[in-house]
């Protein structure tokens, strides 16, 4: 299997950091282009769903800018100069956005943490890693912590 492009999904959790470390190492070894991807999920507030009121989305642009800055701070500094990489922030349904990104970019390997959200977030949104592993057209590497 030729690995020319790797997408690593992050939600800034501890497992995501382990996945980024593994993806950076693999990108260096295979001389592959690395995409570190974060998806800002849609705003869902169970308290407002019945009323029909939808919160304004205008501040999302500033949230996306802050996420881009955080990704550069956390990940950009740790990536060796010889690794070709791109930090990507998408907005939408997390697993759908990831699957669309890997399809469009023709990604050869996805690296993701085993889990990120916990508690109610996991109940509401399900496991992104599970959905991506089931539906991706490429190989998926799931990184687990201790």
In short:
The chain has 146 residues and is α/β, with parallel strands linked by helices. The chain has helices spanning 14-30, 60-74, 94-105, 120-125, 128-135; strands at residues 5-9, 33-40, 85-91, 109-113, 139-143. It has a five-stranded parallel sheet with strand order 3-2-1-4-5, sandwiched between helices.
Describe the protein:
- This protein has one domain: 3-Layer(aba) Sandwich (Rossmann fold).
- Helix 2 links the parallel strand 2 (33-40) and strand 3.
- The chain is globular and about 40 Å long.
- The protein is an alpha/beta fold.
- Helix 3 packs parallel to helix 5.
- The model is unreliable at 119-126 (pLDDT under 50).
- A five-stranded parallel β-sheet has the order 3-2-1-4-5, with helices on both faces.
- The chain contains five helices and five strands; from the N terminus they run βαβαβαβααβ.
- The longest helix is centred in the N-terminal third of the chain and has 17 residues, at 14-30.
List the keywords:
single chain; 146 residues; Rossmann fold; five-stranded parallel sheet
């Amino acid at each position: 299997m030729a690995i020319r492009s790797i997408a690593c999904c992050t939600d800034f959790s501890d497992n995501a950091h382990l996945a980024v470390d593994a993806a950076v190492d693999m990108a260096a070894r295979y001389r592959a282009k690395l995409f570190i991807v974060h998806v800002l999920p849609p705003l869902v507030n169970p308290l407002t769903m019945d009323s029909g009121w939808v919160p304004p989305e205008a501040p999302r642009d500033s949230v996306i800018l802050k996420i881009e800055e955080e990704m550069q701070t956390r990940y950009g500094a740790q990536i060796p100069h010889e690794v070709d990489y791109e930090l990507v922030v998408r907005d939408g349904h997390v697993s759908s956005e990831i699957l669309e990104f890997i399809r469009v970019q023709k990604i050869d390997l996805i690296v993701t943490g085993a889990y990120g959200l916990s508690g109610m977030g996991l109940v509401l949104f399900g496991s992104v890693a599970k959905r991506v592993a089931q539906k991706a057209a490429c190989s998926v590497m799931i990184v687990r912590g201790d």
